[in-house]
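Q: Can someone sanity-check these two? First one:
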Amino acid sequence: MAPRKRPETQKTCEVVLRPRSKRSRSPQELEPEAKKLSGKGSGSSRRHDSDGLWEGLASQQVPPPCSSIVKAIDQYKLGRATWPSLQQGLQQSFSNSLASYRIFQKAAPFDRRATSLAWHPTHPSTLAVGSKGGDILLWNFGIKDTPTFIKGIGAGGSITGMKFNPLNTDQFFTSSMEGMTRLQDFKGNVLRVFTTSDNCNVWFCSLDVSAKSRMVVTGDNVGNVVLLNMDGKELWNLRMHKKKVTHVALNPCCDWLLATASVDQTVKLWDLRQVRGKASFLSSLPHRHPVNAASFSPDGARLLTTDQKNEIRVYSASQWECPLGLIPHPHRHFQHLTPIKAAWHPRYNLIVVGRYPDPNFKSCNPYELRTIDVFDGSSGKMMCQLYDPESSGIISLNEFNPMGDTLASAMGYHILIWSREEAGTQK
């Protein structure tokens, strides 16, 4: 593989911003229209397959509104309500508010599809986005200044993973098909190369970072996982899967616990203090299909996995080997589509994922829309579906900001920012 020079940062880039000018309608309001315009999209399915472990998945009705959250907090302070009940009330209140979420900003800065998203850990209106061409955008959509744009190498430079440096948020880590895992700044400088491949057939597909233990972990397309410290020293490099490692995730509360997902149809859990070889995993979680992602919940007690066809799983720390529940959900893999990955809400037990309607899915109807679906992580029930008729493509990536009140989505070449309708008009 011939070495390629990293292009310098461009000071300006043309980003198309389109503030929302009119109210978007919900999937339920659009369904009659969709039946007439079946070529433009399809209506959301009204039920799921019945083979999940959770009962009640056949119903996607939004639960009735909860009582006043102010009253719930008051009851908790008076000792008349438990903390779990207060948390449930807060979550229900937020779930109800999702019905008012609309796209209030869009950007289309890339000439190839977006492949990764990362929210700034302390600036709730700032995120970084990577593309299949290796381009990187730092966008503070709360101000009118031109976003920072770093030009990639084009074909073969796909950004497969991105994390802000928790020790210096002016820097970020990336893994890429260029065959590197590195630390960069937003001036375009490469500060440190952690892993590199001299073979054009090997590249890096995922990464995660721990601030507490100062570790960087990355996985490649042939099944290897590499652990390094922040200084770039390699601690070990082992083949942990038979095929591509699509996702690596460190537990946010126990950063010695690592989850790795692979197209070999397994997710494996590892104790980093005891890794001796490919057979030293704590648990191996078999799946029916290749797996796109495995991510821990913010409290570290649950694990969320997304396969490449029609299943989302939730595992619990109390018994990793057996899934707490299965959510049937269409999100099939397609070569020219950024893999769909479900994600946790940072504050509530909610799961957000894009829908790719599949005619072979049992509960599919002919007019399904390409919605963003929000599920309750405990019951598996559908809480809300987000849809904008002007942005009706397949939405592969969805991430809430650390505050949990704004959602960023990647839809092909486009970046979408969702927020409550009244909040969006103020920004």
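And here is the second, same format, sequence then tokens:
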Amino acid sequence: MGRVSRRAFAVAALSAFTMMPPASAAPKPDGKGGGGATTGMRGVWLATVAGRDWPSKPGLTAAQQRAELITHLDRAVRNRLDTVILQVRPTADALWPSPYEPWSQYLTGTQGKDPGWDPLGTAVEEAHARGLKLHAWFNPYRVAVHADPARLAAGHPARRNPHWVVTYGGKLYYNPGLPEVRAFVQDAMLDAVARYPVDGVHFDDYFYPYPVAGQTFDDDTAYEEHGAGFPGRAAWRRDNIDRLVRETADRVKRVRPGAAFGISPFGVWRNAATDPLGSDTRAGVQTYDDLHADTRKWVRESWIDYIVPQLYWNIGFAAADYEKLVRWWADAARGSSTRLYVGEALYKAGDPAQPAAWQDPAELSRHLTLAKEHAQVRGHVFFAAKDMAVDRIGAMARVVADHYGQPAPAPR
């Protein structure tokens, strides 16, 4: 969970190939607190970057934006879900009145412009009123989906601190190798956690950016200053991300002890051809090597409360078989207190550009059936809210009919 949407993430990753217990089951205690809630999850991502899911377009009135948000929450209830994961910091900005970063441009069309209401505060209140949990979804390091700092709001931290910023792939990123950046992004994110009774803190799949052919992420100066003692730049970069994860986990627990901290990475840690501990896949992207995110270690060391690998491929897909990846992640989670949920590609169902398996309304339902074979799988999260609203071929309706026959258990 840089590219503009998860759909773009998956398309780009797939182009490189070959070169999110079922809720009806009783949750099992796992010895690690998180969210003050049951260990299962029936979730949906609600993306705001570039208006992916919500708001439907910039410049809507506060009343219109609120009405659309409520519609998404009500739909989650109708589909017998229990969790909405709302993207509240898509591009170094905020969907709440932050003292650290400007209002998001995706609300009004102008970064820094007050939308006239508090989207995150409203979302938490209205979700809880409906028996839903609300996880606040943050992107730690993406600054902009363009490469022009002058387009950022006046006073933006990236304009005040240009040495924090790396231009890469036509986009702007904060440099994860700078300790002051790591501290700042945590402060900016934890402000929301301190202000609102969110049930969870959620990162997507962006750490170091996805590779762009022919381009180099220029962190030479930071590496020269901070990279001593590491065997190479890749190890130093992984340590930078490990520090972000460990520090954020610790701060979340101190600021809001009942909130869970979870991450939704790209679905392949490493291929078995690269590492015997890896999955039987031929992925063109490996989080350990390309994003410098050691997602398996975070699970094995129980650094995070939950993980939602984006297993956005169909059962039997040659380069990345859903069944093989569920099995691999279940093995990785076995013995850990990190809860495993599976990220599901609802957006692919009925998309004519996708393989034949995705034209079958039962494909997603089969995913949940298969996952029941693994006790470590505690639930599923669907990408994303707009696709749930459209449900082109009834794939989500089939999931609800086959697996969510009863309303989700009430939070406790």
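A (reply): Looked at the second one. The first helix runs from residue 6 to 15. Residues 1-38 have pLDDT under 50 and may be disordered.
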